[in-house]
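Handout, tutorial session.
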Amino acid sequence: MTLSVIWVVCMAGSILYSCAAGTTAEISAAVLEGVQSAVDFALGAGVIMCLWCGIFEVMARCGLTGALTRLLRPVLRRLFPHTARHGEVFDALSANVAANLLGLGNAATPMGIRAASGMAALPDRDIRRELSLLVVLNTASIQLLPTTIASVRAACGAAVPFDILPAVWITSVCSVAAGVLAVKVLER
């Protein structure tokens, strides 16, 4: 609410100043140019995100995401021992982490919500730590293919959108390690 009021006051002040300074033509042109840029960016990024979500769906139907999920299960069982006892919740958790690994944050969101809702409904007392860990893993996920970032870079005109891979790998591994460590330290 407060930010809305601040935003309206800033906009009204800008319009009044523009009228007083006689720069309404320049402001109008800048507003229209900004709107056009925003629409172009949103459409370009949206199309690329739809493409990657479609690729994820094809991978799921071919069984590739299931294979990746099975590969992740031993590690996830150690990180989420209480959740691992509940098949459907653990499946959603595994699929969420797999989608995040592939850099498909938009496709991972419904599975993450399903996993978090299922975990919150579990009767285990220790589930809060695991729920915190899920939030950390979703926030600072390791991404093998940062497709969302690459789509934004492509929409902004980057010649090679995936040239950021080494930096993304290093920073995502470091952020996940720091997050997991923080959860482990704070749980005591």
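The second record follows below. Compare its token runs with those of the first.
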Amino acid sequence: MYSTEFKLEIVERYLKGDVALKKLAQEYHVSYGDIQKWRDTYQEHGVAGLSTTHGTYTGDFKVSVVEYMHKTGASIRKTATHFNIPSFGTVSKWERIYYEQGKEALYEERRGRTVRMGTKRQQKPKKNIEKNEDLLSEVQRLRMENEYLKKLNALIQEREKSEKPIK
């Protein structure tokens, strides 16, 4: 999160015309897109537009933003700047909701976790302890059998070596 003073300093340097956007982005280690957004917001709302305030928006406001965007043909970014909405992604989300679920859906509060009233979570069935113990004992028996067969094989190979005549 950048301070209002920091944003203002960059925007004023850009507006003087002696430094390009890309150069400012490199110099201040900020994204090119952020500087564009700050410039547009400053030109539309002045210094007040650079101080980010995250607030809640009414359903009427959301509907008016989406309808403004479609009536004027403004881009999502330009619309966010016009209404001083810090994130253009917010406007994009409102537009999607407007078209998928209708404008009434913009009046619903969507922040936080969804509450599922009346639905019980299905509990995972408890593991059958006896079955697990049987499986563990079978694994242990198979490991012992495997070790026994390895030792038997080693003894047989050793005997075959010793029985071969040495030339």
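Points raised in discussion: The chain has a mean pLDDT of 81.
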